[in-house]
Amino acid sequence: MTPGDGAGRRPSGLSRRRLLAGIGGVGAVGMASGIGTGAYLADRETFANNVFGAGEVGLTVDGTPTNGVVTVGPLAVDRTTFADRPEPETFEVEASANPVRVWLATDCPDGDSLGNALEVEVVVDGESVTGGYRPLAEVERDLATGVRIDAGCLDPDGDPIVVEVAPYLPVDSPDVGGQATDLTVRLYAEQCRHVSEEQANAPGGNPFAAVVCEETDCPECVPFGKADFGASTAVGDVLPLEMLLDGAGPHQIEITGVETKDDGEVVGVAFRLRDADGDSGPDMCTVVVKGGPDRDPDPVAVDPVDPETDGIVFAPVNPKNGTRYGVSNVTIGVCIDTVETGGGGDCVVCDDEAVSLASLDIGYRGSDEQSIAVVSTKGGTSGTLFAGRVADGDAFTLDGSDVTRKGKNGNTNGGGPADRLGPEIEIAVDGGATIPIHVSCSEPLAVGMRFGPADEFEIVGGTTTDDEPLCGTEAN
Q1: What mean pLDDT is reported for the chain?
Q2: Are residues 267 and 334 in the same domain?
Q3: In what residue span(s) does the DUF7467 domain sit (predicted)?
Q4: What's the total number of domains in the chain?
Q5: How would you classify the pairing of strands 242-243 and 134-135?
Q6: Are 450 and 437 in contact (CB under 8 A)?
Q7: pLDDT band with cut points at 50, 70 and 90 for residue 8
Q8: Does residue 66 sit in the same domain as residue 147?
Q9: Mean pLDDT value of segment 90-105
């Protein structure tokens, strides 16, 4: 996906990057109405009453008439390398009657872990509009106040707005595999002939401008651990957690309250999260109580966030008899900024020649889009490991299988495979000076380290030839 040079084409002066970066994928298209959804298709003169205006104002999404609410998703993704990221989804927006101006807004971010971890790139009419991948929740906050998306009135006889959306969950993100999220897109349209461009672009022209998203005291809620319940549980019991967050030390939950059926089966619990020493653990933000056949019960928010639940949290209700199932396990989400991690011992430190890297993930953190080429050098090696254009937020993977290695231990002249990186790579930016990075582990290399004259290249992940992850720096 290559950014183009169409910046500034909309009369509002707002880039398509701001307006569509929050869309995570196209699933079902839902329709609803009313102020509660924030969806409007109306003449500006009747906007306050939330009705359709005169003059046949309307839009379609993928050829289907919509009253302004588009449900995007559910979108479920797994962590992956940049090279194996999912293919983009595509949808089209058209005017169905008269030329219209169109504004788009989303709901404020709700703090779910996938929304904070998921990144997307959006291409509109062949132009990359996000400048790389951006966290979904980050752009949802911007989009809640609405942006205008038409390029000087959307004509029903003209070309539709074609949007490609590519989701990507980086390999170094929290483990949210199997989860899903969706996005509510709200549209507002008005006839171009009823309102002048001056009015539309005035400070009060954006119908969503007054929306304010509340600040959250939990910037990112991530899965932390899971506790299994036995046949009976009582106040004072301490249950160990199966840790779900890489790098987090052992934790437990201490039961502070229970709710039972007449037969003593526990259907609800209250508890405190604590570490192995008995001290309070990180702040909990969600609790999912599993019971019965429901594999994906709704999470219960812990609000305000705290190491202890605010009272009893219950298992789901059996729809057949109206009674609650017994608690089988609970899964806890915590605020990532309250977690202390120490590497967990599950990664490999790259500072010993006994370690070899099979792959390396590198992120680009520069302000300008660049054309780069990465080659293997020194030690009788060669081979192009990556070539392409990157923008801020992009990442790419270097694979040892692309290294050509000479000699008896190489993969030429019948020497057998040598699918490892090293001893060095060189990154050439727009054909200019090269940036060397030593990758044989004879020198320290860790996730979080940066290279380049402006620190524009960052190590964001990697694996050893034993399929173990590369450790981070002390700050990562």
Answers
A1: 77
A2: yes
A3: 366-454
A4: 3
A5: unpaired
A6: no
A7: very low
A8: yes
A9: 83
